[in-house]
From TrEMBL:
Residues 488-605 form the Transcription initiation factor TFIID subunit 2 Ig-like domain. This is Transcription initiation factor TFIID subunit 2. Residues 995-1035, 1070-1161 are annotated as: Disordered. Residues 607-961 form the Transcription initiation factor TFIID subunit 2 TPR repeats domain. It comes from Oncorhynchus tshawytscha. The gene is TAF2. It is found in: Nucleus.
Length: 1161
């Protein structure tokens, strides 16, 4: 296997904006730093990464509360937004005076990255041939700001700089990075070439990315500045999938009335992607699984949606960045909102409203279950303010501590809130605000190194809201207070009565605001009432908890007059009014039809009203609501209404799909009174089968996508039908088997793989638990006849897939699910070995995930495999993420239940995974924390032995001392004293033999970087109190060499030797990863002693710097001098210092383990 590594070189140009800039803090993880020079002088540095191992000194405290506070503290200790970093460089004292003359500092860092576990992902297929022939490639990935994983930088979204990037790679490879490709230069021996990229637009390091591989290249025919890259042999798919991209460009440029901000755009499609879409400055990295041919129906809209999301994030997220994590919701909200507008234009209003309802339901369900999602967290202030979300088991102070599901819901809520703002100020004003943000940013981006201008390229909540009030003149304060500054949703219960005497509708709307995740709503709410004479909107004011509202009705009830009834959209229809209440003119009522509150509504109205609403309301959201409600009314009238919808071609296809499943449920409830053939059978026969022979399906032609989706869904819903014995009716099963048998796709220009997969799903749905005869052993021979037919069909499909695989292996995925259902229902012996073989590396990712899902389910049912065993053999971050999330969703046991799996070994394994095993990937660490929480809760796992009494007291003491977050701000005056702040103008250029480079850029003074104080670990002197110092980045140089040396190592990527791999992996996990134990990783001139970085005011670290630099003989002199120099500060500080030195000396983020050597004399 080749050694997966690179050598690099970074050059940062810093414009100090303060005198005596004596320490520079950068972010860097995994990189081995060889030497650091500042203006050609060797500079000493310290490297300390407290997130490598969160809790040191094998604490027997295995509770999550302790871990979470320690993890938050560790992340805070290296948070670039607060001016911290893993790498602290001491500026040589000869250069201190340069601060006065404001000269430029150039920082040169040489580093290497060997077999990185995160940040860069190497894909090396285990086949014959050279690297290029094997399609080996590498790409950068990560969740939020993760650039520090592959080169040292200021890894913050608010520190902008311009970039020069150079990458030297094998001559058969192409390097794709941000900015314009200026030139490609071959080395003398023609075996390597260097790609030079320049990105003149100020960009945060977190938005820089890289991808190297033997890519095939396609230039967009309509827009030559757009280039697409894909892996070998996929060019035809790339051409088809991207043929639509220029229309997305045109749409965004038109609504934003603003050109695309970069001079080029590159899309790269890679295998084993971290997420489907990741956006970086002027380029996006996509999963290669999004590519499809013209024959594929189902993937097409999904791929277009991914492209549209990526492009929306180019404008808001890459070009316009954010001031701080608290402002993330603005970027996610705007990009999600304009993506929604694209959805509305391309896929239609129905699809858009369906999507909004889907997102709203998802988010409401999450908030009610987990407690609220807070868009704009503010910290500092009182005790409660420090943890605004006490209901969560993780901190929301940093993106890196959030659970992935929470982050997904956060993005979802952000765009829904943008839509609420649009409802309030109108779309026209909304787009004007976006245009204003973009035009200010593009003006700023063209300025040379005047970093104060560049702050226009950063958006903050404050500036966004100010812009809204300037443009629209409307006050949206209350809306922001309700949905952005506080979490939770609203829960309404509605019911009504009609008062015939007064001809008044008495509406009662109650709220539940006491249960978790709910809040009280006060304000307007819209109610739509459909009466005989038309549809009327009423706006009610919600004030107290339970409120009755009287709404006057416009029409009198009429008995026999025939007259058309006007609908909301102006259409007039004939209705059969015999079902309705003769005394009342009401047809149906809807609460908040526009979804202009983030809410859940449970409304009670009569069954005939739901049926009218389903048939005649033209809004898909209303139709979907009525389908849901009709499940509770199994009557012939409901059956008729649903069947009518299924037959209506002009009805939205997703509504008809929903009606299929609702009809199956109703049929099962009406089992005894149901007449005629099974539900949907005659309809399916009429629509899709031959006239002459009704049990043979017509040759497939999927010209009409509407009927294609219906044809796919109906059999799946029919399979849920049950007879009196609770079995799937024989004729339904035979009907489905016939559909599979007579399926003929020869004349179809579209692939039928999704349809065939759904037919297998239908077979799965028809399965019912086996009737077990006592002590009979289950074998394939004594299977029930029907089940045997199903098993044969599944086996045949699975074998066919091996010869003729379907697109994305959809059929294999369905077959694996079916086999798991056969096992669960007791028809065949439960055995995970088939799934384990399909879960191995080398199978398509969807197949692996489906197989792993079955293994996870088996683990839960049988209590045999340990869950951590499942997550070991998978070198792909995405797959491990899926395993951990599936275990979280379907845990083998929970904190409430006893289980043989709940034992000390499992707790240890999971703890290790959280504590040090996932330090290379924020998302995996948060997944592991989630799983730990699901299995054991916040407190100490019940299966662990109780600690001895002496220890308990100890823990309590520690708890009293442990400060959950290491905060430099103890109060306004101390910050001034102890923290010098610096901004930073960092240029990156890159020169290298096999190198990547990152270009020139000055950042704004967005967030001031706090520097260490007097008592910093390097024992330096520091400027006067109240001084502020800023550095600004202007250019970065950065070289990376990819080695391709064959080495005898365990082949991490191939599935066959998984035992060795597990063993190897376990060894890695056993090893502690405190920086102190690995002097090799650090470079001279520092002897690595873990020093407490989180807060450098511990008394012991006062002279640790002297140790580091071997100045023992100067020590006492220095100390005296120093005391003298800073007399005026000590008055203020001594108290804080004492306080801090106790508080942090043992805190996990101080980077100091209990065993670490003391740093005092």
């Amino acid at each position: 296997m080749c050694s997966l590594s690179h050598l690099g070189f970074v050059e940062l140009t810093i414009f100090p904006t303060v005198v005596n800039l004596n320490r520079i803090k950068l972010n860097s993880k995994q990189c081995r730093i060889y030497r650091v020079r500042v203006n050609d002088l060797e500079a000493p540095f310290i490297y300390n990464d407290p997130t490598l191992e969160v809790c040191h000194h094998e604490s027997k405290q295995r509770n999550l509360n302790y871990f979470s506070s320690a993890y938050t503290a560790a992340v805070s200790a290296v948070d670039p937004d607060a001016g911290h970093g893993e790498l602290v460089i001491k500026v040589p004292s000869e250069l201190w005076k340069q601060g006065d003359e404001m000269n430029v500092l150039k920082v040169y860092i040489e580093f290497s990255l060997d077999q990185p576990k995160g940040g860069l992902h190497f894909v090396v297929p285990d086949v014959e041939g050279s690297m290029a022939e094997r399609g080996a490639h590498v790409f950068s990935f990560g969740y939020q700001n993760s650039t520090r994983f592959w080169f040292p930088c200021v890894d913050s979204y608010s520190e902008l700089c311009t970039w020069k990037l150079e990458f030297t790679v094998d001559a058969s490879m192409v390097a794709v990075s941000c900015g314009d490709l200026v030139e490609t230069v071959y080395t003398h021996d023609m075996r390597k070439k260097t790609f030079h990229y320049v990105l003149p637009i100020p960009t945060a390091a977190s938005n820089i990315s890289l991808s190297v591989g033997p890519f095939e290249i396609l230039v967009e025919p309509y827009m030559h500045e757009v280039t697409h890259f894909c892996l070998p042999q996929l060019l035809p798919l790339l051409k088809h999938s991207m043929s639509y991209l220029h229309e997305i460009f045109e749409f965004y440029e038109e609504i934003l009335t603003c050109r695309y901000p970069y001079s080029c755009f590159k899309t790269v499609f890679v295998d084993e992607a971290y997420v489907q879409v990741s956006s970086y400055a002027s380029m996006s990295i996509f999963s290669t699984n999004l590519l499809h041919s013209a024959m594929i129906i189902d993937q097409t809209p999904l791929t277009r949606q991914c492209l549209a999301q990526a492009l929306a994030q180019q404008f808001f997220g890459c070009f316009i960045s954010r001031m701080s994590w608290a402002d993330e919701w603005v970027l996610k909200g705007i990009s999600g909102y304009i993506y929604g507008l694209y959805l509305k234009k391309t896929f239609g209003v129905n699809q858009y409203r369906h999507w909004i309802k889907e997102e709203l339901d998802k988010m409401v369900e999450y908030e009610l279950k987990m407690g609220g999602v807070l868009l704009h967290p503010t910290f500092g202030g009182g005790k409660d303010k420090d943890n605004p979300t006490p209901h969560l088991h993780f901190s929301i102070k940093h993106p890196h501590t959030l659970s992935w599901k929470y982050y997904k819901m956060f993005q979802c809520k952000a765009h829904l809130v943008m839509r609420l703002i649009e409802n309030r100020i109108s779309m026209e004003f909304m787009l004007q605000v976006f245009n204003k943000l973009l035009s200010l940013a593009s003006t700023a981006s063209s300025q040379k190194y005047q970093s104060h201008m560049w702050s226009q390229m950063l958006v903050s909540t404050h500036s966004f809201l100010k812009s809204i009030s300037n443009v629209s003149g409307k006050d949206i304060g209350p809306l922001i207070k309700q949905w952005v500054d506080q979490s939770a949703v609203v829960k309404f219960f509605g019911s009504f009565a009609f008062n015939r005497k007064r001809n008044v509708l008495e509406l009662e709307i109650r709220q539940d605001y006491t249960s978790s995740g709910t809040q009280k709503y006060v304000g307007p709410i819209k109610v739509t009432v459909q009466e005989l004479d038309g549809s009327f909107n009423h706006t009610l004011q919600i004030e107290e908890n339970s409120l009755k509202h009287d709404i006057p009705c416009h029409s009198k009830s009429r008995r026999n007059k025939k007259k058309k009834i006007p609908l909301m959209n102006g259409e007039e229809v004939d209705m059969d009014l015999s079902a309705m209440d003769a005394d009342s003119p009401l047809l149906w009522i809807r609460i908040d039809p526009d979804m202009s509150i983030l809410r859940k509504v449970e409304f009670e109205q009569a069954d005939f009203m739901w049926q009218y609403q389903l048939r005649y309301e033209r809004d898909v959201v209303a139709q979907e609501e009525s389908i849901l409600a009709l499940e509770k009314f199994p009557t012939p009238a409901s059956r008729l209404a649903l069947t009518d919808i299924l037959e209506q071609d002009q009805c939205f296809y997703k509504v008809r799909q929903g009606a299929c499943f609702c009809l199956a449920k109703i049929a099962n409830s009406m089992m005894s009174t149901w007449t005629g053939p099974p539900a949907m059978k005659s309809l399916f026969t009429r629509m899709f089968c031959c006239k002459s022979c009704p049990n043979i399906v017509k040759t497939n032609t999927f010209i009409s996508f509407q009927s294609y989706f219906l044809q796919k869904t109906m059999p799946v819903a029919m399979a849920q039908l049950r007879d009196i014995q609770n079995l799937c009716p024989k004729d339904v099963l035979n009907f489905i088997l016939d559909l599979i048998k007579y399926n003929d796709n020869r004349k179809n220009k579209f692939s039928d793989n999704y349809y065939r997969a759904e037919l297998i799903d239908a077979l799965t749905n028809s399965l019912t638990p086996a009737i077990s005869i006592s002590n009979e052993v289950r074998t394939v021979d004594n299977l029930n006849g029907d089940v045997r037919l199903i098993l044969e069909e599944i086996t045949r499909s699975l074998n066919m897939e091996k010869l003729l695989p379907s697109y994305r292996n959809t059929i294999t995925v369905s077959c694996l699910r079916a086999i798991r259902m056969l096992q669960k229902n007791g028809h065949i012996p439960s055995d995970p070995s088939l799934f384990k073989s399909y879960a191995e590396y080398g199978h398509f990712v969807d197949v692996r995930v489906a197989a792993l899902e079955a293994v996870v389910d088996y683990t839960r049912g049988m209590h045999r495999t340990s869950p951590s065993e499942v997550s070991r053999t998978h070198p792909i971050p995405y797959v491990v993420h899926k395993i951990l999330s599936m275990l979280g969703k379907n845990p083998p046991f929970t904190k409430a239940a006893e289980s043989p799996l709940c034992n000390e070994a499992l707790v240890d394994q999971l703890w290790k995974l959280m504590n040090s095993g996932t330090s290379h990937d924020w998302r995996l660490r948060c997944d592991a924390v989630n799983l730990y929480y699901t299995l054991f809760g916040l407190t100490r796992p019940s299966c662990l032995p109780l600690p001895e009494l002496g220890l308990v007291l100890n823990l309590k003491e520690k708890k009293a001392v442990l400060n959950p977050t290491i905060k430099p701000e103890q109060g306004p005056d101390t910050t001034e004293m102890t923290g010098i702040t610096m901004g930073g103008l960092i240029t990156m250029e890159t020169v290298s033999s096999v190198s990547m480079s990152s270009g020139v850029a000055p950042p704004p003074q967005g967030l001031k970087r706090k520097l260490d104080s007097v008592v910093g670990p390097l024992g330096s002197s520091s400027p006067e109190p109240g001084q502020v110092l800023q550095e600004e980045d202007t250019s970065k140089k950065f070289k990376i060499r990819f080695n391709t040396v064959e080495e005898d190592e365990i082949d991490m990527e191939s599935p066959h030797d998984s035992q060795a791999f597990i063993h190897h992996h376990l060894n890695i996990l056993e090893r502690p990863s405190t920086p102190g134990q690995h002097p090799a990783v650090l470079s001279l001139p520092v002897t690595p002693l873990p020093s407490s970085f989180g807060k450098e005011s511990t008394s012991s670290s006062k002279h640790s710097g002297d140790h580091h630099h071997h100045h023992h003989h100067h020590e006492h002199k220095k100390k005296k001098k120093k005391k003298h120099k800073h007399k005026h500060k000590h008055k203020h500080e001594s108290k804080d210092k004492e306080r801090d030195s106790h508080a942090f000396s043992n805190s996990p983020a101080s980077g100091r383990s209990a065993r670490s050597p003391s740093m005092s004399d």
